[in-house]
Amino acid sequence: MTHSLKHSVDLECSDNNRPSKLSKIEHSSHIEEEEEEEMNQNPKNGIQRYLFAIEYIGTRFSGSQKQLTCRTVVGALEEAFAKFVGQPVSVSCSSRTDAGVHALSNVCHVDIQRTSKRKPGEVLPPHEPAVVGRAVNHFLQKHDSDLTIIDVRRVPSDFHARFKAQERTYFYRLLSGPEPLSTFEKDRAWHVCEDLNVPAMQEACRVLVGCHDFSSFRAAGCQVVFFSLICVNSNS
Known about the structure:
It catalyses: uridine(38/39/40) in tRNA = pseudouridine(38/39/40) in tRNA. The structure is a single chain. With 236 residues, the protein is an alpha+beta fold. It folds into two domains: 21-155, Pseudouridine synthase I, catalytic domain, N-terminal subdomain (Alpha-Beta Plaits), CATH 3.30.70.580; 205-236, no CATH class. The chain is built from five helices and nine strands, in the order E-H-H-E-H-E-E-H-E-E-E-H-E-E. Strands 3-4-2-5 form a four-stranded antiparallel β-sheet. The chain is globular. Mean pLDDT is 80; it is low at 1-17 and 26-35.
């Protein structure tokens, strides 16, 4: 492959073998193994909460949050889960994304009660996480291939994907130069036709490096209890 002649103003992962976001749960949920095993075997009312990570190409999604008249990430997930379990479900995501925004690993949770199809009303033991992932992916991939579940785990009923999240990482990709945007970069980067002064941009961004309190930018009715702190890492 040839190197692009465009200037790339890009924040890339230093490790291509990126771990799933779910790996952090083992350290943040503070659940002892014995308690977790008991929880998995005896969920309340047979309802098991699953935490799952998804990846998607946001080009054909009108954002992540469910909308009545548009195709969204949550809408597609809830439709696939409903086909799997045979009843409506509600999916909650840790991060909201706008239309056209992609995700490498957005984390969500859903509550599922497994019931018998032969004996209506009979509650069965919860599905194994791997079964949930394979089944829902089957319905997701049946018509479209821009949304996939990449990891599934059981969590307690009070674990919330949004409010238990410890960090969120965003990548902003700019490609500058007069040449047309590569076909493989379409909808993956912002193309700026002018050449950018990268050193000047890096110097200006130094004021963002570190932890800062951005709570004044929150909406008046924001549900977040603690101050909003944003950490910006410098790779320069």
